[in-house]
Write a structure and sequence with these properties.
CATH superfamily: NAD(P)-binding Rossmann-like Domain
CATH class: Alpha Beta
Strand content: 15-25%
Number of domains: 1
CATH topology: Rossmann fold
Shape: globular
Order of helices and strands: HHEHEHEHEHEEEH
Low-confidence stretches: none
CATH architecture: 3-Layer(aba) Sandwich
Mean pLDDT: 95
Strand order of the largest sheet: 3-2-1-4-5-7-6
Number of helices: 7
Largest sheet: 7 strands, mixed
Number of strands: 7
Length: 210
């Protein structure tokens, strides 16, 4: 097993000392641990983000395995517990906390208070809208990185990152949501998740989004 210092030095060699210092002091909330959120969380953990808090209310199902970062042995377990377990193996020095809860307009202000960056990674349009609207109202100084369109087999280059508000960044094609009925393939979902993770890393390292 490697030490915290050994991991830090390895990441500094890849990211640079200034970037790594910012990553290790960062705190990010990931809301929704499906195809987007599970992949985003793993990308952030691998980058050395210091603290991740996971939110979801669902359990791992067989239909999740085609695109979400879970294993057959984790079927039936809460996604929060299963992903926290996986992340602890990938990044043993990341501070990982998890809350198994359905986020609502009523509990979002208390549960998400204090996070400088929030990742919205829900499947359903209604849950997305609730989180986005509530966060933008309750936390005007918080960055929100949301997914918007990754279903189907459309061209990968249609997945884009756009800043559409003072603190709101949207990743996706803006069209092919789950509600459209299009199938979900891991490769295209992963593209959108990568855009979200990269946007978060750019915010943490103070790299210009545009």
């Amino acid at each position: 097993m490697f030490t915290r210092l050994e991991l830090h030095e390895a990441l500094v060699a890849r990211h640079g000392a200034e970037n790594q210092a910012r990553l290790e002091s960062a705190r990010v909330a990931v809301c929704g641990l499906g195809g987007l959120g599970s992949n985003v969380a793993i990308a952030l953990a691998r980058a050395g983000v210091g603290a991740l808090h996971l939110f979801d209310f669902d359990c791992v199902e067989l239909s999740n395995l085609n695109r979400q970062q879970y294993f057959p042995r984790q079927l039936g377990r809460p996604k929060t517990e299963a992903l926290a377990e996986t992340l602890s193996e990938i990044a043993p020095y990341c501070q990982i906390s998890a809350t198994t809860v359905r986020l609502t307009e009523e509990n979002i202000p208390s549960l998400l208070a204090g996070f400088p960056i929030i990742c919205e990674a829900f499947d359903r349009a209604e849950a997305k809208a609730t989180l986005v609207n509530t966060v933008l109202t309750a936390f005007p100084d918080t960055w929100l990185v949301a997914g918007n369109g990754m279903a189907g087999l459309g061209e990968g280059n249609l997945i884009q990152t756009r800043q559409v508000g003072k603190r709101l960044i949207l990743c996706g094609d803006g069209i092919s949501g789950v509600e459209s009925g299009a199938p979900l393939f891991s490769a295209r979902v992963l593209l959108c998740a990568a855009h979200q993770a990269l946007a978060i890393l750019r915010l943490i390292t103070q790299t210009n989004i545009n």
